[in-house]
C-alpha cells in the first residue's frame, strides 16, 4: 500500500473521453490518447490493500488487483505487467471491454467511488506493449500432443495460448475470414481498435499457435474427422444463436439482428467495404434491447449519420445508486450507467422523445408497420410495469426505417452441424452440456465459454478459456501445471 491515505485524499478520476463532436466523426477509440498515464499512479494509490480483497472474488480471473495497484503506484511497470499477465492473457481487451464487476466489489465502493481498476489494468497492458514486457513465450519443448480449438473469440484464444505455452501443438479453427470472433466482427472499433487484437495474434503466432480461417467445422471439414485428427478438441464457438422478436410485422424489410448489422460496420473499418449495406445514414433507427450490444448499435448508427436513433429497454429506468436491499455490495448492481454511445446520443439529441440519453425505458414492442413496398416504417410500443404488463393508454409510435434487434443470445448456432455430427448432449436452454472437468459426453471433446455457459462477460470468457486449457492439459499429460480460475458451474456473485 504505497499511500495509506490515498483513498482519503485522492478523488476518483477516470480516463477522459474525447469531445463528442470530434469522436463521432471517426471510428477511433473514444478516449483521449495519452491522457491516462499522467493520472493513473495517483488513482492506484486509492487502493486500500484490503485484508480481504473482494475485487478478487468479483473478477472470475482472480486478478491480483491490490498487488498491481501497489506496483503501479510505485511505477514499477514491469512487475505490474508480470502480476497482471499471471492471471489474464488479454488485459488490453478486458481493460477496454469489461464492465468491471471488480469495481462493484471494491471495498472502497461501500461508501465511496471505487478504485478505477479497469483504467489501471489497461494502463499496465498498454505500457507493457510499449516497453516490450510482453514478448512471445514459446514452449521450451513440445509434448507431441495436438489440440484443435474451434472458435477464435476470447475463450478460444485464451485456451489456445495456454495450451501452446504448455507445449501442445494447437490449431484454432475460425469460420470467418479473420481471427477474433466477436472481438473482430461485433465489437465496434470505437470501443477497441483492432490493432490491439492484431498485436496479440502476432504474439500467439510467434509462440506457435496455428490459425485456420474461413473454415467452418461441420461444413468445410467434418466434426468427426476433426476429432479423429487431434488428441483433444475444445469447442469455443460462443453463443451466436440470437433471440427473435415474435410480433406482427417482423417479416418486413429493414428489420435486422444486431449481429447482422455490427459486423458490416467492422468490415468497413477493415477496408473490405466502402459503405455498409445496412448503413443507418439518413434513417430513423430503433434498437430493441437495452444491453451492451444495443449500445454498440447506437454508437455505430450515430457514426453512420442516422437521422434519429432510439433504444428501447424493457426494464424500468434504474436508479443512479445501488439499492442495498436488493443488490447489496459486493454484487454487480443494475444502476443507471452512461456509456460513451449513450453520452453521444444524449449530447447530439438523437432521440428527443427518449427518457434519458437515447433510451426509452419500460418499453415493449407491440408490432411493426410498413409501406406498400414491404419496408418497415414504424414501430408501435407500449409502456409496461415491473412484471412487463402493458400500462393502459401508453401506446406510442416511433418512425423506423431501420430496426435492430439486440435481444441477446440463447446458445451456440447449430446450423453448421458441429453439435449434431459429434452427438453432443445439449442443455434445455440450448448450451452444450459438460461435466465438472469441462468435458462433454464425447471423450476428448471439451466445451467452454458462451457455447456452454451461455451469454456472459469477456472476463468470464477468458477465465473459461484458461480453465478448459488446464483440464485438457491434465488429460493429455496427467499433470496440473496450468491454473484453473473457475469451474464450469461457477456463477457471478448475487444477493
TrEMBL record:
Top-level division of the source organism's lineage: Bacteria
Domain 4Fe-4S ferredoxin-type span(s) in chain numbering: 38-69
Entries under InterPro entries matching the protein: 4Fe4S_Fe-S-bd (IPR017896), DPD_II (IPR028261), FAD/NAD-bd_sf (IPR036188), FAD/NAD-binding_dom (IPR023753), Glut_synth_ssu1 (IPR006005), Glutamate_Synthase (IPR051394), Helical_ferredxn (IPR009051)
Keywords: Amino-acid biosynthesis, Glutamate biosynthesis, Oxidoreductase
Metabolic or biological pathway: Amino-acid biosynthesis
The protein's name in its UniProt record: Glutamate synthase subunit beta
Provenance organism: Streptomyces neyagawaensis
Phylogenetic classification of the source organism: Bacteria, Bacillati, Actinomycetota, Actinomycetes, Kitasatosporales
